[in-house]
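Quick start: read one record
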Amino acid sequence: MRRKYRDLKRKGNVVVFPTTINRLLTEGMTLLKQERYEEARDGLYQVLSYEPEHPAALGAYSYCLYELGDYEEALEVCRELLKVGPIHYLETMELYISILMQVREFEEAERVIEVLIEENVLPEERLEQFHLLRDLNERIASKSIENIDPEQFSTEAFLALAPYEQERKVMELPPSSFKPLTKKMLALVEHPEIDLLTKTYILFILHQEKIDAKAIIHKFHYTGEFNVADLPNPQTSPRVTEIKDIFAEQLAKDPTRLEMVNELFERHVYLFYPFLMDDYESKEVAEAYMTYLDLLFSGDIDFSSDEELHNMVIKAEMWFETRNG
């Protein structure tokens, strides 16, 4: 089985002469010019096995993967190249946009093109080319949306799917399709029997697409009406940060437990979203999660934290176990 870029490891203390890397790079580039993409890919992989951040090798390797139709890995390598700093910036950005279009990340492709145009980094002779690329991206995105059957996202159709199938079906949609499907998406998030994580994902994308609409959400014992455009971001929520700060303070001398409680809490934040257990003080929530962790380690339980809150934590974790089989 062919090794992938993510499998690359540095060679440790092995000494590699620069002439060896230059020779392998030259051979790979020659094969690339001859359009012998598989051979070029394998040769360039050898260069990267010695120098994983070699800009020229990363660029050529990504192009080979693109030509071979391995778009997901090509995207990973291209993103790594952008971190390192490409030698040929505009050519790399053009390749990056083309890969994004292939993997149907039309929104990201549109954003990158807009940034390039607005920041005036394109020379006059390349400006029209990127305008055409943007138009092509928009046409492909529109066609992709046109091919979506709205009835697949009716409440009745979704209730017939297993929870993980509901989530997969929604995640396969391009974000730009959520606007024309707004009514159906709102009906899904408002239905009490639709998978809870699927509801979370729908709300995230509706919010990201700046859709101004209200929705009544049911999750566990919580019910509330929210304006989608005003939903909180759990990653930057002051409340979530405050609770995690309590974890950090209380478990500063036990990094293993700190990592575990953070992972547990973050998982539940996405499950409960957009509710953030606001009916309890931050300290109470933190204590409940640390008490639950103690239960996992020792089997003993101390109800110094609110018993009802503790049971809700257990119920949330049982939900994951049941959903994932």
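The first strand starts at residue 214 and ends at 219.
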